[in-house]
Q: What sequence folds into this?
Protein backbone atom coordinates (compact mmCIF):
# COMPACT_ATOMS: atom_id res chain seq x y z
CA UNK A 1 0.00 0.00 0.00
CA UNK A 2 2.74 2.45 0.99
CA UNK A 3 4.69 1.42 -2.11
CA UNK A 4 1.67 2.06 -4.31
CA UNK A 5 1.09 5.49 -2.78
CA UNK A 6 4.73 6.36 -3.24
CA UNK A 7 4.64 5.43 -6.91
CA UNK A 8 1.47 7.39 -7.35
CA UNK A 9 3.01 10.45 -5.67
CA UNK A 10 6.01 10.13 -7.97
CA UNK A 11 3.78 10.03 -11.01
CA UNK A 12 1.82 13.03 -9.78
CA UNK A 13 4.97 15.07 -9.17
CA UNK A 14 6.54 14.01 -12.47
CA UNK A 15 3.40 15.05 -14.35
CA UNK A 16 3.40 18.43 -12.59
CA UNK A 17 6.99 19.25 -13.57
CA UNK A 18 5.97 20.57 -16.95
CA UNK A 19 4.60 24.15 -17.16
CA UNK A 20 2.29 23.33 -20.09
CA UNK A 21 0.71 20.50 -18.12
CA UNK A 22 0.34 22.73 -15.07
CA UNK A 23 -1.43 25.36 -17.09
CA UNK A 24 -3.73 22.72 -18.61
CA UNK A 25 -4.65 21.67 -15.07
CA UNK A 26 -5.13 25.30 -14.03
CA UNK A 27 -7.54 25.79 -16.95
CA UNK A 28 -9.48 22.67 -15.96
CA UNK A 29 -9.65 23.82 -12.35
CA UNK A 30 -11.11 27.10 -13.51
CA UNK A 31 -13.58 25.81 -16.07
CA UNK A 32 -14.34 22.31 -14.81
CA UNK A 33 -14.00 20.78 -18.27
CA UNK A 34 -12.78 21.62 -21.76
CA UNK A 35 -12.44 20.03 -25.16
CA UNK A 36 -9.00 19.10 -26.45
CA UNK A 37 -9.03 21.87 -29.06
CA UNK A 38 -10.02 24.43 -26.42
CA UNK A 39 -7.13 23.27 -24.27
CA UNK A 40 -4.69 23.47 -27.18
CA UNK A 41 -5.68 26.99 -28.26
CA UNK A 42 -3.57 29.08 -25.81
CA UNK A 43 -0.38 27.17 -26.57
CA UNK A 44 1.99 27.70 -29.45
CA UNK A 45 2.31 23.96 -29.92
CA UNK A 46 0.65 21.52 -32.29
CA UNK A 47 -2.29 19.37 -31.36
CA UNK A 48 -0.26 16.11 -31.26
CA UNK A 49 2.05 17.71 -28.67
CA UNK A 50 -0.97 18.64 -26.57
CA UNK A 51 -2.27 15.09 -26.91
CA UNK A 52 1.04 13.82 -25.54
CA UNK A 53 0.74 16.06 -22.49
CA UNK A 54 -2.80 14.82 -21.98
CA UNK A 55 -1.54 11.23 -22.13
CA UNK A 56 0.93 11.98 -19.32
CA UNK A 57 -1.80 13.63 -17.23
CA UNK A 58 -4.10 10.69 -17.94
CA UNK A 59 -1.44 8.16 -16.90
CA UNK A 60 -0.99 10.08 -13.66
CA UNK A 61 -4.78 9.96 -13.24
CA UNK A 62 -4.90 13.73 -12.99
CA UNK A 63 -7.51 14.00 -15.74
CA UNK A 64 -10.24 11.88 -17.34
CA UNK A 65 -11.17 11.96 -21.02
CA UNK A 66 -14.53 11.08 -22.50
CA UNK A 67 -15.43 10.95 -26.16
CA UNK A 68 -18.76 12.14 -27.49
CA UNK A 69 -19.00 12.01 -31.27
CA UNK A 70 -15.90 13.83 -32.53
CA UNK A 71 -15.34 15.83 -29.38
CA UNK A 72 -13.10 14.66 -26.55
CA UNK A 73 -13.96 16.31 -23.25
CA UNK A 74 -11.25 16.57 -20.60
CA UNK A 75 -12.03 16.85 -16.90
CA UNK A 76 -9.88 17.33 -13.83
CA UNK A 77 -9.52 14.36 -11.49
CA UNK A 78 -8.58 15.97 -8.15
CA UNK A 79 -7.75 12.76 -6.21
CA UNK A 80 -3.99 12.50 -6.89
CA UNK A 81 -3.45 16.25 -6.39
CA UNK A 82 -5.24 15.99 -3.10
CA UNK A 83 -2.99 13.07 -2.13
CA UNK A 84 0.11 15.15 -2.94
CA UNK A 85 -1.19 18.06 -0.89
CA UNK A 86 -2.17 15.80 1.99
CA UNK A 87 1.35 14.45 2.01
CA UNK A 88 2.76 17.98 2.39
CA UNK A 89 0.15 18.98 4.95
CA UNK A 90 1.09 16.01 7.12
CA UNK A 91 4.45 17.66 7.75
CA UNK A 92 2.82 20.99 8.34
CA UNK A 93 0.46 19.48 10.93
CA UNK A 94 3.33 17.65 12.60
CA UNK A 95 5.39 20.79 13.10
CA UNK A 96 2.53 23.13 13.80
CA UNK A 97 1.21 20.97 16.64
CA UNK A 98 4.72 20.25 17.93
CA UNK A 99 5.66 23.93 18.02
CA UNK A 100 2.46 24.82 19.88
CA UNK A 101 3.45 22.45 22.65
CA UNK A 102 7.12 23.48 22.48
CA UNK A 103 6.10 27.11 23.03
CA UNK A 104 3.87 26.19 25.97
CA UNK A 105 6.64 24.10 27.53
CA UNK A 106 9.35 26.76 27.08
CA UNK A 107 7.07 29.50 28.44
CA UNK A 108 6.36 27.38 31.49
CA UNK A 109 10.12 26.85 31.99
CA UNK A 110 10.71 30.58 31.66
CA UNK A 111 8.17 31.36 34.40
CA UNK A 112 9.68 28.66 36.63
CA UNK A 113 13.19 30.00 36.19
CA UNK A 114 12.11 33.58 36.97
CA UNK A 115 10.41 32.38 40.12
CA UNK A 116 13.63 30.64 41.15
CA UNK A 117 15.72 33.77 40.50
CA UNK A 118 13.48 35.96 42.64
CA UNK B 1 12.68 21.79 -3.72
CA UNK B 2 9.89 21.20 -1.31
CA UNK B 3 10.24 22.88 2.03
CA UNK B 4 8.17 24.01 4.92
CA UNK B 5 8.84 27.08 7.09
CA UNK B 6 7.06 28.02 10.29
CA UNK B 7 7.76 31.00 12.54
CA UNK B 8 6.72 31.23 16.20
CA UNK B 9 7.17 33.90 18.85
CA UNK B 10 7.73 32.36 22.23
CA UNK B 11 7.72 34.13 25.60
CA UNK B 12 10.90 32.48 26.79
CA UNK B 13 14.56 33.37 26.33
CA UNK B 14 16.52 31.61 23.54
CA UNK B 15 18.59 29.46 25.95
CA UNK B 16 15.39 27.99 27.43
CA UNK B 17 13.91 27.35 23.98
CA UNK B 18 17.18 25.77 22.88
CA UNK B 19 17.12 23.40 25.86
CA UNK B 20 13.51 22.51 25.10
CA UNK B 21 14.59 21.61 21.56
CA UNK B 22 17.56 19.51 22.54
CA UNK B 23 17.06 17.80 25.92
CA UNK B 24 15.22 14.46 26.08
CA UNK B 25 13.03 15.84 28.92
CA UNK B 26 12.11 18.81 26.77
CA UNK B 27 11.46 16.79 23.62
CA UNK B 28 9.26 14.37 25.56
CA UNK B 29 6.92 17.29 26.31
CA UNK B 30 6.26 18.54 22.80
CA UNK B 31 7.34 16.26 19.94
CA UNK B 32 4.63 14.80 17.72
CA UNK B 33 1.58 15.67 15.63
CA UNK B 34 -1.00 15.03 18.37
CA UNK B 35 -1.15 14.57 22.15
CA UNK B 36 0.13 10.98 22.02
CA UNK B 37 3.18 10.24 24.19
CA UNK B 38 6.87 10.38 23.31
CA UNK B 39 8.18 6.87 24.02
CA UNK B 40 11.87 7.47 23.55
CA UNK B 41 14.07 10.53 23.12
CA UNK B 42 17.84 10.36 22.76
CA UNK B 43 20.06 13.28 21.88
CA UNK B 44 23.80 13.72 21.54
CA UNK B 45 23.85 17.45 20.97
CA UNK B 46 27.07 18.19 19.09
CA UNK B 47 27.93 18.36 15.40
CA UNK B 48 28.13 14.74 14.28
CA UNK B 49 26.06 13.53 17.25
CA UNK B 50 22.78 11.72 16.66
CA UNK B 51 19.20 12.02 17.85
CA UNK B 52 16.33 9.58 17.88
CA UNK B 53 12.70 10.15 18.87
CA UNK B 54 9.90 7.60 18.97
CA UNK B 55 6.29 8.62 19.61
CA UNK B 56 2.86 7.06 19.68
CA UNK B 57 -0.08 8.83 18.12
CA UNK B 58 -3.57 8.84 19.60
CA UNK B 59 -4.62 6.34 16.90
CA UNK B 60 -2.11 3.89 18.41
CA UNK B 61 0.41 4.02 15.56
CA UNK B 62 4.07 4.42 16.51
CA UNK B 63 6.59 6.41 14.51
CA UNK B 64 10.29 6.98 14.88
CA UNK B 65 12.56 9.51 13.29
CA UNK B 66 16.20 10.29 13.79
CA UNK B 67 19.22 11.86 12.23
CA UNK B 68 22.48 13.64 12.81
CA UNK B 69 23.13 17.08 14.25
CA UNK B 70 24.89 19.05 11.54
CA UNK B 71 25.23 22.41 13.30
CA UNK B 72 24.88 23.16 16.99
CA UNK B 73 25.26 26.84 17.92
CA UNK B 74 23.73 27.29 21.35
CA UNK B 75 21.39 29.16 21.76
CA UNK B 76 20.99 30.42 18.21
CA UNK B 77 20.89 27.62 15.68
CA UNK B 78 20.38 23.90 15.27
CA UNK B 79 20.53 21.98 12.00
CA UNK B 80 20.02 18.27 11.64
CA UNK B 81 19.35 15.60 9.07
CA UNK B 82 16.04 13.78 9.39
CA UNK B 83 14.88 10.35 8.37
CA UNK B 84 11.84 8.25 9.28
CA UNK B 85 12.96 4.90 10.73
CA UNK B 86 10.06 2.94 9.26
CA UNK B 87 10.63 4.21 5.73
CA UNK B 88 7.29 6.05 5.70
CA UNK B 89 8.87 8.64 3.47
CA UNK B 90 12.15 7.42 2.06
CA UNK B 91 15.16 9.69 1.87
CA UNK B 92 16.77 12.20 4.13
CA UNK B 93 15.51 15.70 4.71
CA UNK B 94 17.01 18.72 6.48
CA UNK B 95 15.62 20.29 9.63
CA UNK B 96 16.77 23.71 10.84
CA UNK B 97 15.83 25.77 13.90
CA UNK B 98 16.93 29.39 14.11
CA UNK B 99 16.37 31.28 17.34
CA UNK B 100 16.47 35.06 17.51
CA UNK B 101 16.21 37.05 20.72
CA UNK B 102 13.31 39.52 20.63
CA UNK B 103 12.02 41.78 23.45
CA UNK B 104 9.29 39.32 24.49
CA UNK B 105 11.54 36.26 24.25
CA UNK B 106 12.44 34.28 21.14
CA UNK B 107 11.45 34.21 17.54
CA UNK B 108 11.83 30.64 16.34
CA UNK B 109 12.04 29.80 12.64
CA UNK B 110 11.69 26.16 11.68
CA UNK B 111 12.59 25.04 8.17
CA UNK B 112 12.08 21.45 7.06
CA UNK B 113 13.50 21.16 3.57
CA UNK B 114 14.60 18.62 0.98
CA UNK B 115 11.36 16.78 1.53
CA UNK B 116 10.72 14.20 -1.14
CA UNK B 117 14.43 14.26 -2.00
CA UNK B 118 14.55 10.56 -2.89
CA UNK B 119 11.99 11.16 -5.57
CA UNK B 120 13.94 14.18 -6.75
CA UNK B 121 16.98 12.03 -7.31
CA UNK B 122 14.95 9.31 -8.93
CA UNK B 123 13.26 11.65 -11.34
CA UNK B 124 15.70 12.81 -13.99
CA UNK B 125 13.29 15.30 -15.42
CA UNK B 126 14.55 18.84 -15.49
CA UNK B 127 12.62 21.58 -13.84
CA UNK B 128 11.48 19.31 -11.08
CA UNK B 129 12.66 21.69 -8.37
CA UNK B 130 9.93 23.92 -7.15
CA UNK B 131 7.20 21.91 -8.84
CA UNK B 132 5.65 21.08 -5.52
CA UNK B 133 5.96 24.63 -4.27
CA UNK B 134 4.17 25.79 -7.37
CA UNK B 135 1.62 23.06 -6.95
CA UNK B 136 0.94 24.26 -3.44
CA UNK B 137 0.57 27.89 -4.42
CA UNK B 138 -1.58 26.86 -7.30
CA UNK B 139 -3.72 24.46 -5.39
CA UNK B 140 -4.43 26.85 -2.56
CA UNK B 141 -6.33 29.01 -5.01
CA UNK B 142 -8.66 26.17 -5.96
CA UNK B 143 -12.18 26.46 -4.51
CA UNK B 144 -12.74 24.31 -1.44
CA UNK B 145 -15.36 22.13 -3.10
CA UNK B 146 -12.83 20.98 -5.69
CA UNK B 147 -10.13 20.46 -3.14
CA UNK B 148 -12.30 18.45 -0.82
CA UNK B 149 -14.24 16.39 -3.30
CA UNK B 150 -13.11 12.87 -4.02
CA UNK B 151 -12.27 11.66 -7.49
CA UNK B 152 -15.46 11.23 -9.54
A:
Amino acid sequence: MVKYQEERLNRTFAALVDPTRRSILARLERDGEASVSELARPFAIKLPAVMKHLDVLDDAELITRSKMGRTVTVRLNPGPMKAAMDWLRRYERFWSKSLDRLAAYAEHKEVESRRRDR
Amino acid sequence: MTSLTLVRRIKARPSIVFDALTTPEGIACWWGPDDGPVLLAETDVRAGGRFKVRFRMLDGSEHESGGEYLEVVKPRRLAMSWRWADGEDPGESLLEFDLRAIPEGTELTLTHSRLHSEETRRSHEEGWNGALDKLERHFLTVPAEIRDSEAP
